[in-house]
Amino acid sequence: MTTAANQAVNARAVLDNASGEFPPGTHVTGTIRVAEYTVPLAVKRSGLQAFRDFTVVYAQIGDEYEVRMLDLGRQDDEYIEVLGGLEAGTRYVTENSFVLKADIEKSGATHDH
Question: Where are the domains of the chain?
Answer without folding.
Answer: 42-107
